[in-house]
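Data availability (excerpt). All sequences and predicted token strings are deposited with the supplementary files. A representative entry, Enolase-phosphatase E1, is shown inline so that the format can be inspected without opening the archive.
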Amino acid sequence: MSLRFDADSVVLDIEGTTSATEFVVDVLYPYSRRRFGSLLTERAGEPAVRRAAEQVRALVGEPAADAPRIEQVLNAWLDEDRKAAPLKALQGIVWSEGFARGDLVAHFYEDVVPALRRWHARGVRLHVYSSGSVAAQRAWFGHSAQGDLLPLVEGLYDTENAGPKQSPGSYEAISRAIGVPPCRTLFLSDRPAELDAARAAGWLTAGVRRPGEPYYAQGTGGHPEAGSFAGIEVARTGNGP
Ligand SMILES: CSCCC(=O)C(=O)COP(=O)(O)O
Ligand SMILES: [Mg+2]
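Structure token line:
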């Protein structure tokens, strides 16, 4: 049975929703782990690297932390899959370069791209909201196994430009930015606490519950549930799809 939504915009979570957590953790995380050391030493003067290093020092309360200590903290956060802003910013730098070089190709579940193309062709506006940085999102959608998907996507939001994913205020900020009423915006995520926050902001929600993903056992917390994007229909009729 399909979920049917009448909406003007769909906002997409990435990890666990459009794409496999296993790919992120087994391919992307080791790729960044291998490069943090040289990034923090050889490129310490770059403003984005300096800013992230300062943020790490502030978060751990160690104003004098040197590059090896910062690398150690980043690696511990990677082990926990902690969505810390400076970790995501540094990953964004490393991954963007990896995608541009052809070292990395983004994974999307096979049901995702056909659904995105279908919804986009109907005039549904597609946006992304992920803990991955905007730079990482741009590289991810620009270098998928199915080609460059960026033409399908209108806007990219992360915890820096929108706020934490479990806070309703972040979804309110995205609504203001995209200019679509909350009740006409559908959020797709694997994580019930994110869906709760979106619903509290007045958004439509659907939990994407894929076998093997970390939140599968938890369920969708009472949000409408789909096993894949093939089970979700979105159209902009103004009268229900
Ligand atoms: C292109 S972002 C890579 C995945 C990632 O690092 C991440 O934190 C995704 O988290 P999400 O909010 O999409 O579940
Ligand atoms: Mg997710």
